[in-house]
Design a protein that fits this description.
Radius of gyration of chain B: 12 Å
Helix content of chain B: 25-40%
Number of helices of chain B: 2
Order of helices and strands of chain B: EEEEEHH
Largest sheet of chain A: 5 strands, parallel
Largest sheet of chain B: 5 strands, antiparallel
Distance between the termini of chain A: 21 Å
Shape of chain B: globular
Number of helices of chain A: 15
Strand content of chain B: 25-35%
Oligomer: heterodimer
Strand order of the largest sheet of chain B: 3-2-1-4-5
Strand order of the largest sheet of chain A: 2-1-7-8-9
Number of strands of chain B: 5
Order of helices and strands of chain A: HEHEHEHEHEHEHEHHEHEHEEEEHHHH
Number of strands of chain A: 13
Chain lengths: ~375, ~90
């Protein structure tokens, strides 16, 4: 219990933990998925599983934007960036994601012009400053970052910029959750809903989970007590045979989301028929592409992209980890061949990835000790 | 990248009502507030920022709690702040 005193509200956490424990039916196992990688990070940073009864397992979901980008898309981006007339811009998180021929960082070291930016708007500035170059922004992320890309495209259009485009890899969270619900590998009892994605999409899109699958969802904030409170709310629903959508993070998340953000996405992007997710495979209507009205900002149309599907390295089991079927430490290469310094799979790259969270916060030891003592 | 970071609004840029100068843990940079066009934003108020865009308005208590949480997670927040410090949105 060495994590207990790491946050100031340990008393409140223990009180919540006791309430959670009192709601467990004897003999029943509960599997709750935290969809968002930010939540995974909090859970391992603060050792929240130590507060929960053994009957409750937290399963890590696919909500890590860097983790779900398939290798083929990294290779496509590299192909775009390899043109000497191109400046590729990318969020820092993306820089270490391995493609078939290394990461953006590796390519940069080989002389490719790839620049890290904080915001897509910084890419616009680079485009204005380099009129003789073509600037391509590697757009990634769920609905948290898609509005920023959308607003940037609108701004580029308003300015009449002709040397800026995006390589669009935005994904949407709802189809991924549905794919997990439809997967025979995993039986889940409820979901800790993502906080920041919900700021944009609101709570309504989750209603099908309660209505069609009979599972509760609680949208949660990122602090340790938020997550424990959300687990309590889920357990209360389960104990009362309810399945509803509740919003624990209402101080930030409006029920209807951010309508301006949704409008900007809708104006500039549309759903792709299908998109490949690392580990989850092809999922229908699960990603966004640039709408034809804004085709001149779509790098995939402007330039030739190989579009070759590349299988993940054989040793890598990120797919199973992303679906919540495997715990990070159950992967064969976890912590040995695959570490945050030399990642084989994406889950070890991003701080939001489940493997990196496990690795950084010493969960490996604890889990193995726990497993050993119960086997 | 997916981290929402709280910033205190210092000023709305004259002639550019969709841009605001904010203070994030002492780093002062310009961000876009166009996604909050349905709300009034004034100096002294707090917003939650994602990749250069304010995504929601928050109160001071929420900002303080979010900041404490972010400072607790260490490296990822430091990286985000370092990236923000390099940003030159206009």
């Amino acid at each position: 219990m060495r994590f207990v005193d790491e946050f100031r509200d340990a008393d409140k956490a223990h009180a919540l933990a006791a309430k959670i424990a009192s709601l467990c039916e004897p003999g029943r196992q509960y599997k709750l998925m935290e969809v968002c990688g930010g939540h995974t990070h909090t859970i391992y940073k603060h050792g929240l599983e130590d507060y929960l009864p053994e009957q409750i397992t937290l399963v890590h979901g696919p909500g890590c934007p860097v983790c779900v980008i398939p290798m083929g898309r990294v290779d496509d981006a590299m192909a775009l960036a390899s043109d000497p007339d191109v400046i590729m811009t990318s969020f820092g998180d993306m820089m270490r994601v391995p493609g078939s021929n290394g990461s953006f960082f590796d390519a940069k070291a080989r002389g490719t012009d790839i620049r890290m930016v904080y915001s897509p708007l910084d890419s616009l500035k680079i485009a204005r400053q380099n009129p003789d170059k073509r600037v391509i922004f590697m757009a990634i992320g769920f609905e948290t970052t898609a509005p920023s890309t959308a607003m940037t495209v609108l701004r580029a259009a308003a300015e009449g910029l002709t040397n800026f485009s995006i390589f669009c890899n935005h994904v949407t969270i709802i189809p991924a959750i549905k794919a997990i619900l439809d997967s025979p590998d995993l039986r889940l009892d409820g979901f800790i809903g993502p906080g920041h994605v919900s700021t944009v999409i609101g709570c309504r899109p989750y209603e099908f989970i309660a209505r069609d699958y009979g599972k509760p969802v609680v949208v949660a904030g990122f602090e340790p007590l938020d997550i424990l409170q959300s687990i309590y709310m889920l357990m209360l629903q389960l104990s009362q045979d309810r399945a509803e959508i509740e919003n624990q993070y209402s101080r930030v998340v409006p029920w209807d989301g951010n309508v301006v953000a949704l409008r900007a996405i809708g104006q500039t992007m549309e759903l792709r028929p299908y998109f490949e997710w690392r580990g989850l495979g092809f999922i229908s209507h699960s990603a966004l592409k640039v709408r034809s009205d804004y085709a001149k900002f779509d790098a995939e149309l402007l330039y030739s992209v190989p579009g070759v599907r590349v299988a993940d390295p054989k040793a890598c089991q990120c797919g199973e980890v992303l679906k919540g079927v495997l715990k990070p430490w159950e992967c064969k290469v976890f912590g040995t061949a695959c570490t945050p310094e030399t990642p084989i799979g994406t889950c070890m790259v991003s701080p939001e990835g489940a493997c990196a969270a496990y690795y950084n916060y010493g969960r490996l030891t604890r889990t193995r000790v726990k497993e050993a003592s119960t086997s | 990248m997916c981290l929402g970071i709280p910033g205190e609004v210092i000023e709305i840029l004259p002639d550019q009502p969709d841009l605001a100068r904010v203070d994030v843990s002492g780093v002062r940079r310009v961000i876009n507030i166009g996604l909050l066009e349905n709300e009034t934003i004034a100096p002294g108020e707090w917003v939650l920022i994602h990749v250069g865009f304010a995504l929601s308005k928050i109160d001071e208590a929420e900002a303080a709690a979010a900041l404490e949480f972010l400072e607790g997670i260490g490296q990822a927040y430091e990286d985000e702040l370092a990236a923000l410090a390099e940003s030159r949105i206009e």
